[in-house]
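Slide 14.
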Amino acid sequence: MLAMARALMGQPTLLLLDEPSMGLAPLLVEETFRVVKHLRSEALRFSWSSKMPTLRFHRRHWIRDGDGHTILTGTGESLLNNEQVKQAYLGM
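Slide 15: predicted structure.
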């Protein structure tokens, strides 16, 4: 949260987050999502790198392979229903 606050002091229009929920307690993860949702309503854009399932939270998603190549893109809903995503992340 402190790192996010420091980044926001410069009044950016785009904030890049890399695993912002890693190592946080579940209540802090919820608070982080709440803050990001509020900031997004203020016209701040985000690029979020996370292994955490955020498909319901963000509007648009890009799934990349280990080399950084985009392998899938779409809305959260379309990716939640995608068989490749289910197999890779949910083992279904």
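Speaker note: The first strand starts at residue 14 and ends at 18.
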